[in-house]
Amino acid sequence: MPSFRRRGSVIDRADEPRPDIDDAVDAERVLALAEEAEAQAAEAEAMATAARARARALRLRREAEERAAAPAPTTDADADPDVVAEPESVVETIDSTEESEDPAVETTDDASPRPPGRWRRIARYVAAALAVLATCALIAATVFMVIQHRSAAHEEQQRAEFTAAGKQAVVTLMSLDFNNAQANVDRIIDNSTGQFRDDFKNTAADFVKIAKESKVVTDVSVNAAAVDSMSGDSADVLVAATSRVTNSSGAKEQPRSWRLLVSLVREGDQIKMSKVEFVP
Length: 280
Prior knowledge:
Elements: H1 10-15, H2 19-69, H3 87-111, H4 116-174, E1 176-177, H5 181-190, H6 194-202, H7 204-214, E2 216-231, E3 234-247, E4 256-267, E5 270-278
Antiparallel strand pairs: 1-2, 2-3, 3-4, 4-5
Helix pairs in contact: 2-3, 5-7
Subcellular location: Membrane
Protein name: Mce-associated membrane protein
Keywords: Membrane, Transmembrane, Transmembrane helix
């Protein structure tokens, strides 16, 4: 069967686009798109510049806070971007930069040393403990000094008492008046103790008889006395004395010097002789 081909008519040619008008419209549209693209590029560049400034400000602030908290060198791994990318990539870079800043700050905070406030609290606790120890040591030293002072004062008082008792014992023992011989002997017995008292008491009668027959008066003066040794309620006292003898006719003999070591014992409120030795 033969095919028929339709031929173009005048109406069809009237519907065809006019080449000149369409080309002008396309040129204007391209120009508008180019201007819009330039505006978007300028806006993207401004946003990128602002993003870099913000990132740099955050980095500088973080470095300042790190230096204030703990002066340690830190490595800045961030670098300023040198190339301006497309608008979409710039926005994504800004967002990723902002998100990466926070973890960096948190990591820096975690890696930073302990805050100064905690060290100050620890220092206060240590200072308080040292103050308590110093106070206890001062109290202990004060108590020790008081005890030592009281012990020294008590010992000094005992020395004085034994020294006075030794002087009086020598005067009582060596002073003799034939007119009061028995009273002198009784006084010696009352101021003695132990074996010395027993021995003297056994010979007291003979001593009185000899004193009356000699008809002499003996005066004794103590020149010096000192504690030789002391232990508890007993002491040995070294006494230097001088005796002067006068007979019944009034004649006086030359003074004689004596050195005696008197052993003393405290019995109640009285200190008595327990032994007497003449020493050269």
